[in-house]
Predict the 3D structure of the following.
Amino acid sequence: MNITKRFYLSSLIVFSILIFDQATKTLAHINLPRFQKISFMEDTLRLQYAENAGAAFSLGANLPETWRWIIFGIGQGIFLLLLGYYLIKNRNQHAIQFYGFVLILGGGLGNFLDRLYRNGVVVDFLNVGFGSIRTAIFNVADIAITCGLLLLIWSMMQHPSKHEDHKIGFDSVEDELPVEIESKSSNPL
Protein backbone atom coordinates (compact mmCIF):
# COMPACT_ATOMS: atom_id res chain seq x y z
CA MET A 1 0.00 0.00 0.00
CA ASN A 2 1.45 3.39 -0.93
CA ILE A 3 1.96 6.25 1.52
CA THR A 4 -1.14 8.16 0.40
CA LYS A 5 -3.45 5.17 0.89
CA ARG A 6 -1.82 4.37 4.25
CA PHE A 7 -2.34 7.97 5.35
CA TYR A 8 -6.01 8.10 4.36
CA LEU A 9 -6.85 4.67 5.76
CA SER A 10 -5.10 5.30 9.07
CA SER A 11 -6.67 8.78 9.31
CA LEU A 12 -10.15 7.35 8.75
CA ILE A 13 -9.69 4.74 11.48
CA VAL A 14 -8.05 7.16 13.93
CA PHE A 15 -10.74 9.82 13.47
CA SER A 16 -13.49 7.20 13.86
CA ILE A 17 -11.96 6.12 17.17
CA LEU A 18 -11.58 9.75 18.27
CA ILE A 19 -15.20 10.63 17.47
CA PHE A 20 -16.62 7.55 19.23
CA ASP A 21 -14.26 7.95 22.20
CA GLN A 22 -14.89 11.66 22.74
CA ALA A 23 -18.65 11.30 22.22
CA THR A 24 -18.93 8.53 24.82
CA LYS A 25 -16.74 10.43 27.28
CA THR A 26 -18.87 13.55 26.85
CA LEU A 27 -22.06 11.54 27.39
CA ALA A 28 -20.54 9.95 30.49
CA HIS A 29 -19.41 13.34 31.81
CA ILE A 30 -22.86 14.87 31.31
CA ASN A 31 -25.12 11.97 32.30
CA LEU A 32 -23.40 9.67 34.79
CA PRO A 33 -23.79 10.47 38.46
CA ARG A 34 -20.57 10.90 40.42
CA PHE A 35 -19.63 8.26 43.01
CA GLN A 36 -22.40 5.87 41.90
CA LYS A 37 -22.47 2.71 39.83
CA ILE A 38 -25.10 1.76 37.28
CA SER A 39 -25.13 -2.02 36.77
CA PHE A 40 -26.24 -4.06 33.76
CA MET A 41 -26.40 -7.80 33.02
CA GLU A 42 -26.33 -8.88 36.66
CA ASP A 43 -23.44 -6.50 37.43
CA THR A 44 -21.23 -7.83 34.62
CA LEU A 45 -21.10 -4.33 33.12
CA ARG A 46 -20.99 -1.18 35.21
CA LEU A 47 -21.11 2.44 34.16
CA GLN A 48 -19.14 4.37 36.73
CA TYR A 49 -17.74 7.86 36.15
CA ALA A 50 -14.10 8.42 37.09
CA GLU A 51 -11.41 10.95 36.27
CA ASN A 52 -7.92 9.50 36.02
CA ALA A 53 -4.93 11.82 36.39
CA GLY A 54 -2.46 8.96 35.84
CA ALA A 55 -1.83 6.25 33.29
CA ALA A 56 -3.42 2.80 33.26
CA PHE A 57 -4.56 1.72 36.73
CA SER A 58 -3.94 5.35 37.87
CA LEU A 59 -0.17 4.84 37.78
CA GLY A 60 1.47 8.20 38.36
CA ALA A 61 -1.72 9.92 39.50
CA ASN A 62 -0.01 11.05 42.71
CA LEU A 63 2.94 12.67 40.94
CA PRO A 64 3.19 16.46 41.17
CA GLU A 65 1.20 18.20 38.44
CA THR A 66 4.35 19.39 36.65
CA TRP A 67 5.70 15.85 36.34
CA ARG A 68 2.33 14.54 35.20
CA TRP A 69 2.26 17.20 32.47
CA ILE A 70 5.81 16.32 31.36
CA ILE A 71 5.17 12.56 31.30
CA PHE A 72 1.54 12.34 30.21
CA GLY A 73 1.38 15.54 28.19
CA ILE A 74 4.68 16.23 26.48
CA GLY A 75 5.97 12.64 26.59
CA GLN A 76 2.75 11.15 25.27
CA GLY A 77 2.51 13.83 22.58
CA ILE A 78 6.03 13.07 21.32
CA PHE A 79 5.33 9.32 21.39
CA LEU A 80 2.13 9.78 19.36
CA LEU A 81 3.89 11.96 16.77
CA LEU A 82 6.66 9.37 16.37
CA LEU A 83 4.11 6.55 16.15
CA GLY A 84 2.15 8.40 13.46
CA TYR A 85 5.32 9.04 11.45
CA TYR A 86 6.41 5.40 11.78
CA LEU A 87 2.97 4.19 10.81
CA ILE A 88 2.89 6.16 7.56
CA LYS A 89 6.54 5.74 6.53
CA ASN A 90 7.20 2.08 7.40
CA ARG A 91 6.17 -0.03 4.42
CA ASN A 92 7.51 -3.29 5.88
CA GLN A 93 4.59 -3.94 8.20
CA HIS A 94 2.18 -6.79 7.94
CA ALA A 95 -1.47 -5.70 7.76
CA ILE A 96 -2.03 -6.92 11.33
CA GLN A 97 0.82 -4.70 12.57
CA PHE A 98 -0.52 -1.73 10.63
CA TYR A 99 -3.99 -2.02 12.15
CA GLY A 100 -2.50 -2.64 15.61
CA PHE A 101 -0.49 0.57 15.43
CA VAL A 102 -3.49 2.50 14.04
CA LEU A 103 -5.66 1.38 16.98
CA ILE A 104 -2.96 2.35 19.48
CA LEU A 105 -2.57 5.75 17.80
CA GLY A 106 -6.33 6.40 17.80
CA GLY A 107 -6.76 5.39 21.43
CA GLY A 108 -3.65 7.28 22.49
CA LEU A 109 -4.89 10.44 20.78
CA GLY A 110 -8.29 10.06 22.46
CA ASN A 111 -6.75 10.00 25.92
CA PHE A 112 -4.25 12.72 24.96
CA LEU A 113 -7.11 15.05 23.96
CA ASP A 114 -8.72 14.44 27.34
CA ARG A 115 -5.54 15.49 29.12
CA LEU A 116 -5.33 18.65 27.02
CA TYR A 117 -8.95 19.74 27.39
CA ARG A 118 -10.00 18.28 30.76
CA ASN A 119 -7.35 19.74 33.07
CA GLY A 120 -4.93 16.83 32.78
CA VAL A 121 -7.37 14.01 33.50
CA VAL A 122 -8.87 11.24 31.37
CA VAL A 123 -12.56 10.37 31.70
CA ASP A 124 -13.17 6.67 32.36
CA PHE A 125 -16.62 5.14 32.73
CA LEU A 126 -16.69 1.40 31.88
CA ASN A 127 -16.09 -1.49 34.25
CA VAL A 128 -16.62 -5.20 33.60
CA GLY A 129 -16.26 -8.24 35.78
CA PHE A 130 -17.82 -11.12 37.63
CA GLY A 131 -18.38 -10.72 41.35
CA SER A 132 -15.30 -9.29 43.01
CA ILE A 133 -13.09 -9.92 39.96
CA ARG A 134 -13.29 -6.66 38.04
CA THR A 135 -11.30 -4.64 35.57
CA ALA A 136 -10.08 -1.15 36.22
CA ILE A 137 -12.45 1.58 35.05
CA PHE A 138 -11.68 2.31 31.39
CA ASN A 139 -12.96 4.02 28.24
CA VAL A 140 -13.26 3.49 24.47
CA ALA A 141 -9.71 4.77 23.85
CA ASP A 142 -8.39 2.15 26.28
CA ILE A 143 -10.29 -0.54 24.35
CA ALA A 144 -8.65 0.61 21.10
CA ILE A 145 -5.18 0.61 22.70
CA THR A 146 -5.71 -2.86 24.19
CA CYS A 147 -6.99 -4.28 20.89
CA GLY A 148 -4.02 -2.72 19.10
CA LEU A 149 -1.57 -4.29 21.54
CA LEU A 150 -3.28 -7.67 21.15
CA LEU A 151 -2.97 -7.39 17.36
CA LEU A 152 0.74 -6.59 17.67
CA ILE A 153 1.30 -9.58 19.95
CA TRP A 154 -0.64 -11.81 17.56
CA SER A 155 1.40 -10.45 14.65
CA MET A 156 4.66 -11.24 16.43
CA MET A 157 3.44 -14.78 17.02
CA GLN A 158 2.27 -15.22 13.41
CA HIS A 159 5.26 -13.56 11.75
CA PRO A 160 8.36 -14.17 13.87
CA SER A 161 11.53 -12.40 12.82
CA LYS A 162 13.12 -13.97 9.78
CA HIS A 163 16.52 -12.71 10.87
CA GLU A 164 18.65 -14.99 12.98
CA ASP A 165 20.68 -12.23 14.66
CA HIS A 166 19.16 -13.15 17.99
CA LYS A 167 20.70 -16.64 18.10
CA ILE A 168 22.71 -17.37 21.20
CA GLY A 169 24.41 -20.66 20.32
CA PHE A 170 25.96 -22.31 17.29
CA ASP A 171 24.18 -24.72 14.99
CA SER A 172 27.24 -26.84 14.31
CA VAL A 173 30.93 -27.15 15.11
CA GLU A 174 31.79 -25.68 11.70
CA ASP A 175 30.19 -22.38 12.76
CA GLU A 176 32.86 -22.06 15.44
CA LEU A 177 35.81 -22.47 13.05
CA PRO A 178 37.44 -19.33 11.64
CA VAL A 179 37.13 -18.74 7.93
CA GLU A 180 40.41 -19.17 6.06
CA ILE A 181 41.45 -16.22 3.93
CA GLU A 182 43.08 -17.15 0.67
CA SER A 183 46.36 -15.45 -0.07
CA LYS A 184 46.48 -13.40 -3.25
CA SER A 185 50.15 -14.11 -3.75
CA SER A 186 51.23 -17.16 -5.66
CA ASN A 187 54.24 -17.65 -3.41
CA PRO A 188 53.56 -20.64 -1.09
CA LEU A 189 55.98 -19.30 1.54
